[in-house]
Amino acid sequence: MHLDVAFSTLFHLLTTPRLLLLMTVAVPMGIFFGSTPGLGGKLGLVLLIPFVYNMDQITGAVFLCAMHAVVHTGGSIPSILIGVPGDGPAAATALDGYAMTKKGQAGRALGASFGASTVGGLLGAVFLGLSLPILEPVILSFSPAEFFLLAILGITFIATLSGNSFLKGMIVGLFGLMCAFIGLDPSTGSPRFAFGQLWLWDGLSVIVAVLAMFAVPEMISLGVKGRAFDISPEHAAALQKSGADIPSSAGTQKVRYGQIWRGMWDVAQHKWLVLRCSLLVAGIGIIPGLGGDAASWMAYGHTVQSSKHPERFGKGEVAGVIGAETGSCAKEAGSLLPTLFFGVPGSSGMAIMLGAFLMLGIQPGPTMLTDHIDIVWSLIWALVISNIICVIMLITAAPWIGKLGSAKASFLIPYVLVFALLGCYLFQGNWQNLILVLVMGSLGYLFKRHDWPRAPFIIGVILGKIAEDSLLKALGIWGPSFFWRPISLVLIGLIVASIGFYVWRMRKPAAVPSHA
Amino acid sequence: MLKRIVVAAVGAALFLAAPANAADSGYFRGKIVTYIVATGPGGGYDTYGRLIAKYMQKHLAGSRFVVRNVPGAGHIVGANTIYASKPDGLTIGMFNTGLIYDQLLKRDGVLFDLNKFSWIGKAANDTRALVLSKTAFKNTDDFLKAKGPIKFAASGVGSAAYNDTRILADALHLNVQIVPGFTGNEGEMSMLRREVVAEVGTAESMEDFVKQGHGFFALAISGDASALPGVPRAMQYVKDEHGKRLLALINALSEIGRLTAGPPGIPANVLNEERQAYDATMKDPEFLAEAKKLDLDIHPMSGLQVEGAIKGALNQPPETVKELKAAASG
Which terminus of chain A has a smaller tally of CB atoms within 10 A, N or C? Predict the structure, then answer.
């Protein structure tokens, strides 16, 4: 485990003012990119890469890693306060986080989010450090066969997230799967569902999907209602009785430190959930091929499934925020492993980081463990330190951050839509994405208006492509016999158990989570 | 005496007024040149592009280079964008040599004609090689005698690596099964997991895998003997003419890696100035030192030579195109 290197690199990071300063600068940048709907961590990395061009290896890598480590924590802010996620993982937080804000518990949701993401990030880094000796056999145990079955396991969560109507959830989920198949057919190389448009050859971007299903509908809804949300007199009375924040007027509320600490205490009370989600997601992140977005949704799905009260999810259950946020942040550490040691990115963000590493002259591969272990430990500590800096900054600024939820529609709508559209354009440089996000966003609004769940669409888009690519590779390598591989059999068992558990729960009238 | 002083003064004035670079017409002074990279940021093309742009800016006095990433459809979107740009020399860029296959195969979406680009130069060789897993084969002969089907990892159907694999299999009459869809180093990982036993790619990208002892270079498919010393050349095992033609095509493509070009119709003097700046970049000691630090192979070729090489690569007899189409469609 190279403990001597581990501690010497930590000492170096903490005693080098330039590195500390860079991390302190990187963290608010990561929070900014994560919290601005449409921008996201990947765009942040893209924009910062030219700046690290002339830095030395450790400085450049630590700077980028510190920025990227806190992006999802930042992404939880608009998810919770205005129901607009910046990327795929943040959408899972919005399901319960925004519902908590509508109940006047924005402060508690933020506190839970900050606490869970920090602990998740720290546990992920610990997992990363402890995994180093057994890394290679673990990563090599998972093949396209297992990627396919893990994707199917994730897709079964569509049922869990379907809320009151399984049929509606499946229709939306299948629509998402269909959208995932837009692009080049992996078995023939021919364009599929591209309608002769070159820009669709690379498929539908997850960013476009998330913004279309969440950002645009929420802003349309906000524009129609004129305020963020309504609180009825009965609800206000219930809030007063429970001691929660009462909005000073409909659509406004103050975030107080008391609520923040309450939310962080919730994380301590859900410690086993946090530990399970961290290990689950860090483990998924370590396996290249499934992707970081999928990991967060799987953490959320596991949280709902393992809860004694699944009917509370989607209505403002703090455990939903905790599970989603733990998953969002723990996966980054896990996904760093295959990126560094095999040159295979564990997530889309890591794909960009990999390019940056190559530009810095860091050559990923097994020699990282022998010849560059100092860089590996520097990155692990950068994850830890940046998460700590992030939570200190966010807690300090929480009352001011909370004002975002009180912002007037006339300010919020153009702010969110401009950045959302900017993010859609900048990510791939396609102006056509702007039209696509508005058209699909209108569809997302109709879903919202008529109480159709939107989360299954995101699951379908994220996991559909992974499932198809992996299935084709698995069939190409083994034929149908891949189902009999030992780990495959275990995963098939989990899939059956997941579906069976849902069916059993469906028989209980009150045990149905609500997601719209 | 006075006459000599006047002549000397005029001469000095003319020397001082002359541009520092003999090719500097002043056209690029104060202008922004957009260097398009047909991939997303990070990665090989982006690294090469940014480095070249940085030093071309140095050698085009007064210019400012801005790198813009235009990814999509396997470099086709970026190449289309460069092709359609205004031919004023202020938009140039880099894309994959594999687009030669796309043009020969008349792929949908290709809106350019590589014969018409204003070629500025190329920076590297893309020596193609076959790497075999050490757990599956002892040596090249072992591989050539295998009955198969031999499982190959390859990137997406229609990509340059996929086409190279198909061409090699066809030229050597091998019984192969290609598993497509592996990007980056995923193919090597698949070999480590013993799912596949072979992969065709650039020698540079697979060098680490070989150095770590997991595989070996079984065949050098392109490049000269100095590129992969001691590795058998694929051409020596090809018996028929159509196989030789196909391998010659791969060889031609591999010599023109990391191309830089502008749209058709750039005025000759402007293009000439850009070519000279590119050539100066390729010889610049600082550029070479930085490329070495980034582990980038630099084997430059001038724009005129690239133009000839591209024309040669595209000028294939109909039977070769037919064979290429058959090989690529599997």
Answer: N
